[in-house]
Amino acid sequence: MMKVNTNDKNQMKNGLGDDAFNRQLNIKENIIYKITVQNNEVPVLPDHKTVLDSLEAADIETHSHCRDGFCGVCRVTLISGEIHYPNGEPLAYVGDDEILPCCCIASSDLCLGID
């Protein structure tokens, strides 16, 4: 779990109202991992059940359909990082450098490629 030091808090507060500051601080303190995709850094928060949840929460456009690893529509390229499938390997075909974000969980910071 990432901790925020006092200098980070002071830098974050400059130019933000108290409500905006508190929301950003809460997110920063609760980030488990980050996902780098399309020149964006997306936080993985405790309430995100899958990588797809994190991407959708950050308004990153991804294709999805079944959300259970059956169809493979959400397939993306895993450039770096580690994931795991909590319910076992998905049934859809997944290449060596691909993951199905609908049914996997980040085990580290990730870098993804989305077509």
| H/E element order | HHEEHEEEEE
State the strand order across the main sheet. Answer: 2-1-7-3-5
- First-to-last CA distance: 30 Å
Q: Percent range for helical residues?
A: 10-25%
Q: How large a portion of the residues is in β-strands, by DSSP E?
A: 15-25%
Briefly characterize the structure.
This protein has 115 residues and is an alpha+beta fold. The protein has helices at 6-13, 18-30, 51-57; strands spanning 33-37, 40-44, 76-80, 83-84, 98-99, 105-106, 110-113.
Characteristic key phrases:
115 residues; alpha+beta; Ubiquitin-like (UB roll); 3 helices; 7 strands
Structure description:
The structure is a single chain. The two termini are 30 Å apart. The protein has two domains: 30 residues, no CATH class; 81 residues, Beta-grasp domain (Ubiquitin-like (UB roll), Roll). The strands form two sheets. It has a five-stranded mixed beta sheet, with helices on one face. A two-stranded antiparallel ribbon has the order 4-6. A hairpin with a 2-residue loop joins β1 and β2. It is of the alpha+beta class.
Set down the secondary structure blueprint:
Elements: H1 6-13, H2 18-30, E1 33-37, E2 40-44, H3 51-57, E3 76-80, E4 83-84, E5 98-99, E6 105-106, E7 110-113
